[in-house]
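Case study 2.
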Amino acid sequence: MTATRCPDLDGDGVPDCLQSLVPNGDFATGITGWKPDQGVYESFSSADAEGTAQSGSLLINNAVTSNATSGPITAGGSMCLSETTAMGYEVYLEVAPGPSTGGFAQAGVAVSYFPSLDCSGPQGGVAPTTLLDGSVGGWHVLQQILQPVAGTNSMLVRLVVVKGAADAAVQGSFDNVLIRPR
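Prediction:
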């Protein structure tokens, strides 16, 4: 992939795909590396946030069910980033939350910190989840600053879709995931 097809969401003059810790964060070569939660369906979509015909996005369908009649259900796909020992990180991504058929829909990013090198074992902490409401429609850029807890050696990055417990399946699309040290 050439840099001309890669956005610069953080505005630093460097194409994001050349500096992101997330391999294939622009989904130009598919969705390899993202692991869906149970009850979640992931697929490659030809819809690209930047309108690039040679690229696409990750489509996540949250079809998780619950016996609860109210409350949110958060589910998505995750990727472990190893050897993340910087004091801080910048996160940028493009998100298009799908509409809900009955309640609400949100999509965004959630990050957990681990002392292990492979996101295994007990969590060392979590970052606040950044979500975009489905009522806004279309693609939007989300930005977040991460400040991992001391002893963090890996981060579990989750691209999540949130729906009501009683709602039917809700989708969200994700593209151009940039995570880089500050």
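DSSP finds no helices and eleven strands in the chain.
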